[in-house]
Amino acid sequence: MTTIDDFGSFETAWCPGCGNTGILKSLKQALADMDIPPHKLGMVSGIGQAAKTPQYLNCNMFNGLHGRSLPAAQGAKLANPELTVIVDSGDGCSYGEGGNHFMAAVRRNVNMTLLAHDNQIYGLTKGQASPTTAHGQKTKAQPYGAPSEPFNPVLVATAMKASFVARSFSGDMDHLTKMIKQAVNHKGFALVDILQPCVSFNKINTFKWYKERCYHLEDHDPTNWEAAIAKAAEFGEQIPIGVIWKTDKPVFGEDNPAMNGEPLATRKYDKTALADVVKSFA
Ligand SMILES: Cc1ncc(C[n+]2csc(CCOP(=O)(O)OP(=O)(O)O)c2C)c(N)n1
Ligand code: SF4
Ligand SMILES: [Mg+2]
Description:
282 residues, alpha/beta, Rossmann fold, eight-stranded mixed beta sheet, 8 strands, binds thiamine diphosphate
């Protein structure tokens, strides 16, 4: 049986009070509850504070370029469907530089989970506006206020009829653990947008700010698309957290005969033929 201790205990480089700590704890708890041991877990991230998460877990991991975690994760899952693949990255990484990959991942629907740590700011690079920063919010780099309307990832993913869309809050660890488990157990691409305070560079969206606004979704039918759109659009004085939308649909690769049988990762291959292909690009 898997326990949270199996994932190790590492000193982190995060500021005291950073929401990433609650996300890491919830993730470990969810993995232990689902009995997913480190060797069956593939964690993928890009660059940023959130993207450091896999480095604080015993597991298989790939830390890629900023904004490029989703393509690498899709490759890992398709090569080895026996791996539980989870991406942990920030709002900048997932929705800014990686925004087009986000749309493509929703459409492609590989069976994996994206945990987007959404602190509504670029934390690692010291506080520039991210795609989810509120319009007009002043930052060090935008002293006259963020000039663009914010991107609502939950609304966009729901509008695109993604397979699974949820929102949670790093300060509500029981709720977050539940959301992570539902996302991982859902067959298809699952997004959990996790609201997370950045205590150093976002002085507006603080722990208190989120705590006062987040409420648990109750009596909401996540299979009713019109109702889901209404809940996904709600972001302001009230922020619903929970499963916003979910649907069952074909998963990428399922109908591809090349994917049947033994995982690509463990199949025998002709090393000479592969070397010839590689040489042909030289
Ligand atoms: C291709 C590329 N573009 C830009 C950067 C600089 N960069 C690194 S992290 C980052 C933003 C991080 O913000 P976010 O993804 O929200 O993560 P956070 O640090 O807030 O967790 C940027 C712009 C980079 N490393 N590589
Ligand atoms: S700068 Fe912000 S996101 Fe980065 S570790 Fe500190 S509180 Fe967390
Ligand atoms: Mg961020």
